[in-house]
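Hey team,

Filing this mostly as a record. A colleague (T.K.) asked me to run one chain through the structure pipeline before their review meeting, and I want the input and output archived in the tracker in case anyone asks later how it was produced. No errors, nothing strange. Just documentation.

Input sequence:
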Amino acid sequence: MTLYLLRLLFDFGLVVLIWAVQLIIYPSFQYYGAAQLLQWHQKYTAAISFIVIPLMFGQLITAALQLISDRNLFTIGSLILIALVWLSTFTQFVPIHGAISSGNDSPELLKQLVSKNWIRTVLWTAIFLWTFLRTR
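Output structure:
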């Protein structure tokens, strides 16, 4: 399997996941009561971590290896986009999920979760499309 194909698989996994999160999972949080959301959110974050962490690290590692082996607009640009996703994840979403885990289930926070997640949805979609077009 080539490095580009492996990268495409990681990118595809993340784009499918982020669209499911954006359109189904995050919007569903508003339908839980406070106690139920707290209980579900703890289970959700633990379970989704087993999917998200390997995919994100796989994407980052393959992109870094691509940059090492072939420095060009695609490898530099995609690594920058991946860094933006990581930055957004740790500066915006980790704190929001921390607040939800602490019992903050305000409608404003839950709306913020969905609206801010469009950033990652667009970035991961762009990353996938760029990789897909590059590997053809």
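Quick notes for T.K.: The chain is about 90% helix and 0% strand. The chain has a mean pLDDT of 96.
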